Amino acid sequence: MRGAEARGCEGANATGRPIGRTGRTALLLYRRSVQVLILILLLTSAGCKVNYSFTGADIPAGASTYDVAVFDARAPLSTPRTAQVFTETLRDLLQAQTPLKLVREGGDLRYEGAITGYDVQPVSIQANETAALNRLTMTVSVTYTNSLDATRTSTFTVSRFADYDSAADLVTVEEGLVRTISDQLVQDIFDRTLGNW
Predict the structure, then answer these.
(1) Residue 26's pLDDT band (boundaries 50, 70, 90)?
(2) Which CATH class is domain 65-193?
């Protein structure tokens, strides 16, 4: 009787039950479909490049170094100390948010420029026509050079400000204001050059 039951069957499955022609054909079709799907995935992903970064940096392919020239203090009220604080803040941000190595000169990526604006203006005028706050505004002109891809080289200007109490002397609050403004400026520079914005 067993031979009669097995007639028209091509084999047995893992439980010992016979597999009919339609079951075997479906199994072969399923295996073939999975193989084709895997092949398609491999072929389409072979041409893709995925850059993962937890900081959002879009580092150009092949770049391994960067340099930041000391920014000039060209604005009439800015000091060499202001330029130094700004330059160090930019170097620190790039060091912290990219895998690139800082070099003295000749980096794959180069940042240079000048502080072109450094102004104090009264804001928040009160009823007695005196200012409750003053605003320190810094403007920086930046030249970003990508030696690996000249199409990504650019020159641009960024500007940020911070307010302080008009009763405070600028000399006493200047260092903190410059650091606050520099943090904002270098983040803008990073976003424009490596942030893929």
Answers:
(1) confident
(2) alpha beta
